[in-house]
Specification:
Number of strands: 0
Strand content: under 5%
Helix content: over 70%
Number of domains: 1
Protein name: DUF1206 domain-containing protein
Order of helices and strands: HHHHHHHHHH
Pfam family, one: DUF1206
InterPro entries: DUF1206 (IPR009597)
Keywords: Membrane, Transmembrane, Transmembrane helix
Length: about 280
């Protein structure tokens, strides 16, 4: 790298490093975990409602819509949007500097891997998407993500390239879901926490990650089914995966278990807000 390029890179990394030294920035970013916890608990509530015959969208848009309809809900959504943006920016900082930036040399003595940076960047995109959705619902312009997914899938299915893109997206979703299941079953999530998790926290993480992973993977499988059957109505994301689960034998029991699993992840998110390595 040329000296001028090295100086520019160093200057940018140094600015990012100084930004993450801000206690206020870290606290607002940690609030992203709190808001994520609330969203997952609302999704869990909707799933259990579905188990007992009530309607609703069992995904992020359903949760945000439910919150927006409550007194003071739109104000909470604006707060959530700020917290999600802060968390997204923190993940971008981790993309540049590596994970656990506040730990300095105590984080990873070998330096961050390309996979570490890719995961941080992916999470940044997820939290920016959360923030955008929160703003939309706070403004009263939120829409069902399931309907949007079906509409987009219908347009993509009109061409061979579009179908290929859908299959790729589905495979990525299945891989992400599988990673969540692995992370929960192997208890690798413990590495994200400061100290040794308590006997209560550990099962929350296991159940939460596995449940969330299965739902995400299920959504990916449904997209593949939708492409193979040329039926975009099946490609409705997490909501479609949950409702397909409900239509299976013993669907009511499965929905209750799924709801409890997502709720466990929501509670675990509150633990992350306090104990996550940042």
């Amino acid at each position: 790298m040329a000296p001028n390029e090295a100086n520019r890179a160093g200057g940018f990394s140094g600015a990012v490093d100084r930004a993450t030294d801000s206690t206020t920035f870290e606290r607002v970013a940690r609030a992203g975990h709190v808001m994520s916890g609330f969203v997952h608990l609302l999704v869990a509530y909707i799933i259990i409602q579905l188990a007992f015959g009530n309607g609703g969208d069992a995904d992020q848009s359903g949760a945000l819509g439910t919150l927006a309809s409550k007194p003071g809900g739109r104000f909470v959504l604006w707060v959530a949007a700020v917290a999600f943006v802060a968390m997204a920016l923190w993940r971008l900082a981790e993309t540049v500097l590596g994970p656990h930036v506040t730990e300095g040399s105590q984080g990873d003595p070998e330096g961050p891997s390309l996979m570490d940076r890719a995961k941080a960047f992916g999470l940044a995109l997820v939290y920016f998407a959360f923030a955008f959705s929160a703003v939309q619902f706070a403004r009263g312009a939120g829409k069902s993500s399931g309907q949007q997914n079906a509409g987009l899938s219908a347009r993509l299915m009109e061409s061979g390239a579009g179908k290929t893109l859908l299959i790729v997206v589905a495979l990525v979703a299945i891989a992400i879901g599988g990673y969540h299941v692995y992370k929960g079953a192997s208890k690798n999530f413990c590495d994200d926490l400061k100290g040794q998790p308590s006997k209560l926290v550990e099962p929350l993480g296991v159940i939460g990650y596995v449940a969330k992973g299965l739902v995400i993977a299920g959504a990916g499988v449904l997209v593949i089914v939708a492409v193979l059957k040329s039926d975009p109505s099946k490609a409705t994301g997490l909501d479609g995966a949950v409702k397909t689960l409900g239509s299976a034998p013993y669907g009511q029991v499965l929905l209750v278990l799924a709801g409890l699993g997502i709720a466990a992840y929501g509670v675990y998110s509150f633990v992350m807000a306090r104990n996550a390595r940042m």
